[in-house]
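Re: duplicated header lines in exported structure tokens

Our pipeline writes sequence and tokens for each protein into one text file. With two proteins the header for the second block appears twice in some exports. Here is an export where it did not happen, for reference. First protein block:
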Amino acid sequence: MVHHDLYQDNVLIVPRWLTALLKGRFDEHCEEQGHNRKHKNLFCLECRACICKDCDDHANHRLLKIFTHGTGRNQSCAVVKLDNTNELLDCSHIQPRVHNGAQVLFIKQRPQTSYGGNNCERDGCDATLEHHNSFCSIDCKVNHIMSVPSNYRNAKWLLNRVNLP
């Protein structure tokens, strides 16, 4: 099923919820309803907003749990569980990591690592990957597809499988 916002003037665009997720700032404190001491650790798929667990306005909405994954050198990155994300888009060829026993994916381009392997296929990303993966993050996969017009016809492996705003 093709979602209504995948094409505009016959040009493929990224679903609005995915664009909002990729732009999300999960390292900030929530400013809604006096929750300024709570970190934003959820993404509301319906409202396309980064929220904390105490934001009641989203209680009946579909939420995606965001985790913080340490990457060394005092850096941390926002990650999502592979099982939860695979319901929304095809996550093949994105390198998973293990976080608290679960496979997770980096949302945004991840810091460079030092182990051998191939490089991320996104222009400008120097992350090294295990040999069977092509992208270090969801962001890199989306940007790679959108930067190469011939990839548009294969975009079904990127785009959402559920009907979301």
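Second protein block, exported in the same file:
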Amino acid sequence: MHMMVSKPEQWVKPMAVAGANQYTFHLEATENPGALIKDIRENGMKVGLAIKPGTSVEYLAPWANQIDMALVMTVEPGFGGQKFMEDMMPKVHWLRTQFPSLDIEVDGGVGPDTVHKCAEPFGRSLSFMALEVRNFSKIWN
């Protein structure tokens, strides 16, 4: 679950009860990431940590060894139809070089013209949450 909420702490237990196996929250949305990471783990879920475009990737670094996945937003959260922000890809590269075993995902504006920019050198795991499914066959054909 990618939780784009202002108080991610309040949704951990309900998501665990609902059967979520991973809980991804935005680093900017909590004052105590360490406690939230611990709570997510105690509720039997993997931990994902997301950062918005304006957040420095180094802000995520202290938590990288405690999480299962880092999510780099490639659009501003909350508004559909935005253009992929290619200038976020250095964040992915930095995470890959600093934390080679960490799963890294990107979210936002990924489509047939941008998917290769995401997949080229960086991720073991890529999430294409905003991919236009109707154009999916154009990518691999």
